[in-house]
Each structure stands twice: as structure tokens, then as C-alpha cells.
């Protein structure tokens, strides 16, 4: 067993986050590789068993899928659900919505017409009794990829029934994803069935997660909905109809990072949205209410929450699980600079970890850039850690948890395993990983097996899998 708590590999954990829970201890002990490549190839194959998509993933993004799962305790998952529920209750408050939207661009104040927004991504760091909501996103990618990889892991630390359920959950997630898009269409007061969808991003074929767009296209086709993959500049709007070539578009699945549709390329989409000629999901108002990082400062400020009418019970949940966050300005610049080693700095308009800085790495020059831009300072909470490699040459990677949420309910929880300042898909051994919940009793059985077989030339836990 690798002692992450005391290991030099665990430099991040100079901040004391307390002892690991039993399920987490497996993350620091089990070297088993549970990803079945043949099963993954099958999961990514089309109806004709073509390996083209698998080959595309292997060539373009070889570190998209982690070979090892992440284990969390049941109590941690329950706590995550309570945090999401608390945040959703605040965002539903008229006072919160009025305050946030008053500071948002005009298009974000436009009523989206019933669409709730698909794939809210709640990102967490967790370790032992420490849980931290790091940020919320409104066009979180990876759900379809996680549905595929769920079918391909054969974890040794799960009972046979639990493993069978985990594999089956991938197909169930795909079905729930389509039903979610149907719900977005129906909630926008449309009576007829959904017929056409455009999956829209800038230069989609050049996007790192382009393989996922193909999976979405297949999913829609499976349910009789025609889907196209397009850049916003390929859309036209006239006579009240948004079109791709000559195809009238019912719904746009929005993967753009131009959250307010401000660029010239987005003008047709913007016009169609404002005239309610298309259902756009997620939409600008969703981003303003959930994903603007300014909101993290509000959600971690007891005084402001109380002024909004948030109950003491909900405030307690938020303050215990959202790291203190504040806007960076001249008034607090000296204090934040002095305490920068305990902080993480993120741009308000940033995404995907771009232009985000861990405080200990901030130089004077970078600090001037932060002061000149619009940034938040967030209390630093280290990511979880997952052992990689083997017992003779172990290494420790980081991970966060991403909860995909729709209409206030968690659809799926995945992990992103990585090395570096922020999540990425460039780390050998890293990528999306399934998350398995274990109760303490089951986890303790695995820990005992890991301990007894430490150093032995045998399976490292109570089950059997590939090392």
C-alpha cells in the first residue's frame, strides 16, 4: 500500500485534510487496471461494428480514459448530493435570480422559454471529511464518453452484482440523456416530437472531444432524431427558421464557450434564440445563474446568503462545502498577494482551467495580469489522489469528481484523473474514470486484502483483474 498521506508524491497534501475514509484508501492501494480495451472498442463501435471511432480516440486523445476507477464512500456521495440540493434551492430563489441577472448581459435576462439547460457540471474535490465544490459549469462535456466507458470497466473491488449493475448503468445513462433532451423540447411548449438536433461548437471536428459529438449523433439517430454536427457559422436564420444547409433545426445542443452568443459567428443562432425559433440548451441565462464564477463568492458569503433569504440550514451546508471565494480587486490585492499560497485564482470568464493559477506559482508579472483582469480568489483545497503505475514504481495522480445534473438531480458522477495544476486529458494513466460507491464494510474487506497481499506477486485485492 502506498502511504499517500506521508508520501513525497503527495506534495499537494501539505494542507491537512484529515484521514482517508475506507473507500478512498483503495485509491491509494489498488494498482489493478480494470479497463477492458476490447469492451471499450465494442462500446464505441457503431451498428456495423466499425472501429473507426475507437481508432479516432486512440490516435487523437489516447489519454481520454483512465485505466483505473475511483472509489468513494457512500457518505461522501450523500454529502455531494446534499450540496447540490442546497445550491439548486438557492438558485431557485427569486431574490438570487434577480441579483445575479441584474449584473448579467442583456441576453442572459431573456426568458429561455422553459428549457432548463442540459449537463450542468458540479465539480468537487474530496478527501476524507473534506469536500469542496470547486466550480459549476453549464456545458459540461464527457457524459456520453462516460456512458461508453462504464460498459468497459471490470473492477476487481466490486461484487459480481454491483459490477453487473455498473456495466448496465452505461446504457441506462444513454437512455436518460435522450429523455433529457426530449424534456427540454417538451418544456418549451412543443407538442410534436423532436425531429432534428444540431450539435454546435466552434470548428467541431477540431475539438478534443469531437468523438463525443459522434456518440451524441448516434444516440439521437437511435431514437429517430436526425442530428448534425455544425459550427455556428454554418447555421442560417430566415423566415423564422434556423437551418443547417436546408435542414430546419428544432433544438441546438450548445457546446460553445461563447456563452452569451456574442461573436459574429453566433449571430444566426442568437437571433433564432431571441425569437424562440429554436430550443437552445444550455442557454445564456443558465450560464449566468450557475456558471459565472462570481456566483461562487456569493454562495460562500454568509451575510449575502442571509440577505437573500437562504435558511440557516442551507447556509450551513454551503459554507461547509464551498471554499471561501472573493473577487480580486485593488482593495484586497495586498492581502490576497500575501496569502496567495493558500489560494487558487480563476478568471470570471474562464473555462477548462484556462488562465487559472495556483497561488504558489503566481509571479509578480502574473499577479499584475490578475489585477488587470476579472478574477476570483478561491481558498485552495487539494484534489483527491489515485495511485498509478505499479507497486515497484508507484506514482500518484490527482482527480476531481464531476456530477452531471439535470433539473436538480444527479444523472451521473464521473472522475477526471490528471496531473498538473488543473484537469486535462494529457496525462498517461489519466482521463475519465468511473466512480464506484462502497460502504465502509465492503471497503474494509478490500483494504484487508490489499494489505495482506502487499508486495506479493498476486492480485492486489480480493478480486481478479489485469495488473
From TrEMBL:
<protein>
    <submittedName>
        <fullName>Uncharacterized protein</fullName>
    </submittedName>
</protein>
Amino acid at each position: 500500500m502506498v502511504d499517500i498521506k506521508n508520501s513525497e508524491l503527495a506534495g499537494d497534501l501539505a494542507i491537512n485534510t484529515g484521514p482517508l475514509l475506507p473507500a478512498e484508501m483503495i485509491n491509494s492501494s489498488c494498482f489493478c487496471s480494470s479497463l477492458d480495451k476490447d469492451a471499450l472498442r465494442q462500446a464505441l463501435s457503431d451498428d456495423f461494428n466499425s472501429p473507426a471511432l475507437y481508432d479516432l480516440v486512440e490516435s487523437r486523445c489516447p489519454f481520454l480514459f483512465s485505466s483505473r476507477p475511483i472509489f468513494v464512500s457512500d457518505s461522501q456521495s450523500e454529502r455531494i448530493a446534499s450540496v447540490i440540493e442546497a445550491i439548486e434551492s438557492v438558485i431557485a430563489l427569486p431574490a438570487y435570480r434577480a441579483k445575479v441577472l441584474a449584473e448579467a448581459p442583456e441576453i442572459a435576462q431573456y426568458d429561455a422559454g422553459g428549457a432548463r439547460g442540459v449537463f450542468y457540471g458540479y465539480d468537487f474535490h474530496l478527501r476524507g471529511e473534506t469536500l469542496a465544490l470547486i466550480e459549476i459549469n453549464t456545458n459540461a462535456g464527457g457524459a456520453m464518453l462516460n456512458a461508453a466507458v462504464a460498459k468497459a470497466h471490470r473492477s476487481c473491488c466490486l461484487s459480481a452484482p454491483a459490477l453487473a449493475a455498473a456495466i448496465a448503468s452505461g446504457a441506462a445513462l444513454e437512455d436518460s440523456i435522450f429523455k433529457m433532451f426530449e424534456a427540454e423540447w417538451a418544456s418549451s411548449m412543443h407538442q410534436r416530437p423532436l425531429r432534428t438536433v444540431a450539435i454546435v461548437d466552434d470548428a467541431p471536428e477540431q475539438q478534443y472531444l469531437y468523438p463525443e459529438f459522434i456518440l451524441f449523433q448516434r444516440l439521437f439517430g437511435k431514437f429517430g432524431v436526425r442530428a448534425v454536427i455544425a459550427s455556428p457559422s454554418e447555421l442560417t436564420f430566415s423566415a423564422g427558421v434556423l437551418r443547417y444547409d436546408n435542414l430546419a433545426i428544432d433544438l441546438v445542443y450548445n457546446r460553445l464557450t461563447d456563452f452569451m452568443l456574442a461573436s459574429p459567428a453566433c449571430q444566426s443562432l442568437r437571433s433564432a434564440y431571441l425569437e424562440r425559433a429554436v430550443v437552445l440548451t444550455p442557454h445564456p441565462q443558465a450560464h449566468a445563474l450557475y456558471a459565472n464564477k462570481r456566483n461562487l463568492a456569493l454562495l460562500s458569503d454568509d451575510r449575502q446568503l442571509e440577505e437573500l433569504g437562504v435558511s440557516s440550514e442551507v447556509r450551513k451546508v454551503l459554507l461547509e462545502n464551498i471554499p471561501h471565494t472573493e473577487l480580486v480587486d485593488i482593495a484586497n490585492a495586498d492581502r490576497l498577494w500575501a496569502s496567495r499560497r493558500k489560494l487558487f485564482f480563476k478568471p470570471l470568464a474562464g473555462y477548462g482551467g484556462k488562465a487559472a493559477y495556483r497561488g504558489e506559482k503566481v509571479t509578480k508579472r502574473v499577479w499584475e495580469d490578475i489585477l488587470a483582469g476579472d478574477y476570483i480568489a478561491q481558498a485552495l483545497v487539494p484534489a483527491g489522489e489515485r495511485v498509478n503505475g505499479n507497486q515497484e514504481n508507484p506514482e500518484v495522480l490527482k482527480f476531481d469528481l464531476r456530477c452531471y445534473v439535470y433539473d436538480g438531480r444527479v444523472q451521473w458522477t464521473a472522475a477526471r484523473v490528471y496531473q498538473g495544476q488543473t484537469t486535462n486529458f494529457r496525462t498517461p494513466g489519466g482521463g475519465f474514470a468511473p466512480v464506484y460507491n462502497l460502504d465502509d464494510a465492503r471497503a474494509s474487506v478490500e483494504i484487508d486484502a490489499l494489505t495482506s497481499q502487499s508486495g506479493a506477486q498476486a492480485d492486489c485485492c480480493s478480486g481478479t483483474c489485469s495488473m
